[in-house]
Specification:
Number of domains: 4
Radius of gyration: 44 Å
Number of strands: 32
CATH superfamily of the largest domain: Immunoglobulins
CATH architecture of the largest domain: Sandwich
Helix content: under 10%
Largest sheet: 5 strands, antiparallel
Strand content: 35-45%
CATH class of the largest domain: Mainly Beta
Number of helices: 2
Structural class: mainly beta
Distance between the termini: 99 Å
């Protein structure tokens, strides 16, 4: 059997045939009259083997209907055309069950639109040319309606502050194009294309794309992508500090964007901002070494911004400005101890330090020593400097005279921040399971010494 179309000449003799019969089978013998014509279907308008794209793009096969066409009968004893349909495809195997779907009594009628189909399904049609007495002739054709589902798996890749690449899955077989909707904006791409690059977008705006497949006769429902927002925020918390014993300036900042290709660092030495350096993406620090001509007592100001260079440079707003006054090397020296006793389970001791004015390039160390009834590994202290958790440590002693020490480093930048109110507060927080391991009967009442030493300079 040819895979494009089935042409069958019925050789079953007719005893009596009327156009009210609902099956072309089971006909008894009466008189043979050779037909003058058969209802030939132009198969090439529908299919090429198992490729139905010819029918898809001519409109003869759509997702929910097909337009049947055939040659007109030339028989003088013509009664009617009978159109039968079966769900399925003979080449798939098995027996097909045909039902009469239409009877046409006008011999000049040569088309019929079947509008009761389902997308992505096979159907086989038989068109019978019924004559008054004699042999009916039958032509048949198998078709498949196209898959016709909305695009799915719509995803976005943000390429720059104004550019997004959109991808999707093609779930249709007969589209002429895809239409992408973003609010009132409509963009069109060709069939079988599954990517589109949208430009001209704005940061901090909520976007969503809907995509549908279309052709000249129909369109799918829309497939919906998630909402997305392009964020390209400027760096923040820029700080500038003189490096101890030098004129070098250390810069640090927070990176608030994942789109940057790098940062521009600008410096004002008294005649306006100029580009100082460009650093790579994800960088959060830089040391200005071009400071030989810096003068003591003079202030220098810095600012930075991120940039994206996907299709021409696009910049964030500037960060805050950070200034530093260059000072001659002076002593950072400060050394002071503070001792406090802890009296209860879960208690804390508080240690206050009041360093004099010091250069802003000074760093410090904090030495913490704890003594007394710390006889279990579960007992520990946590160290806080102006509310910042610097870490915990503990002891494991059977001797009640035991001690444990730890050293914590304070950067110059942090030290200046802590000194903004002219005092540094150190809190030593005990754990909650200190017991009477010394056997002196003071359960929850141990007196444990916390010794804290703040050292600045060498």
């Amino acid at each position: 059997m040819n895979t494009t179309k089935i042409l069958t000449l019925s050789v079953i003799a007719v005893f009596y045939w009327t156009c009210t019969n609902d099956s072309p089978l089971g006909i008894s013998q009466h008189e043979i009259d050779a037909p003058d014509s058969s209802p030939t279907i132009p198969a090439a308008d529908y299919t090429n083997g198992t490729d139905f794209s010819t029918g898809y793009y001519s409109g003869t096969i759509r997702s929910d209907r097909t337009q049947l066409e055939w040659t007109a009968s030339t028989d003088n004893n013509f009664l009617c055309y009978k159109i039968f349909r079966a769900a399925g495809y003979e080449y798939e195997g098995g027996n097909l069950s045909y039902s009469l779907i239409e009877t046409l009594n006008d011999k000049t009628t040569t088309t019929f639109m079947d509008t009761t189909l389902t997308q992505n399904q096979y159907y086989t049609y038989k068109i019978a040319n019924i004559i008054d007495t004699g042999v009916p002739t039958v032509d048949d054709i198998a078709i498949k309606t196209p898959q016709w589902e909305p695009p799915s798996n719509i995803e976005y890749q943000i390429l720059s502050p104004n550019t997004v690449q959109i991808t999707w899955e093609d779930n249709s077989e007969s589209e002429d194009n895809f239409k992408l909707y973003n609010g009132f904006s409509v963009k069109t791409v060709n069939k079988n294309v599954t990517t589109y690059t949208a430009t001209g977008l704005n940061i901090n705006v909520n976007y969503q794309y809907q995509i549908k497949a279309t052709n000249a006769w129909e369109e799918t429902n829309s497939g919906y992508g998630d909402y997305f927002t392009i964020e390209f925020n400027p760096p923040s918390y820029l700080s500038a500090n003189q490096q101890g014993g030098t004129k070098l300036v250390n810069l640090t900042w927070y990176d608030n964007s994942s789109l940057e290709d790098g940062f521009n660092i600008e410096r004002d030495t008294g005649s306006g901002f100029e580009l100082l350096a460009m650093v790579s993406a994800n960088t959060t620090s830089y040391t200005d070494t071009d400071t030989t001509d810096f003068e003591y007592g003079s202030a220098y100001t810095y600012r930075i911004r991120a940039y994206n260079d996907y299709s021409g440079a696009v910049y964030t707003d500037y960060s805050n400005e950070a200034s530093v006054t260059i000072s001659e090397a002076t002593s950072c020296y400060f050394d002071e101890s503070n001792n406090e006793y802890f009296y209860g389970d879960g208690d804390a001791t508080y240690h206050y330090f009041y360093p004099p004015d010091v250069p802003n390039n000074c760093s410090a160390t904090l030495n913490v020593t704890i003594y007394g009834d710390y006889a279990s590994g579960a007992e520990y202290v946590t160290v806080y400097i102006d509310g910042t958790n610097y870490g915990s440590f503990g002891t494991l002693y059977s001797d009640c005279d035991g001690s444990d020490s730890n050293t914590f480093s304070i950067t110059a930048n942090d030290l200046q921040y802590y000194l903004s109110d002219n005092v540094i507060l150190v809190r030593i927080q005990n754990s909650y399971d200190v017991g009477d391991f010394c056997g002196d009967g003071y359960y929850y009442g141990e007196q444990n010494l916390h010794s804290v030493q703040l050292i600045m300079g060498d």
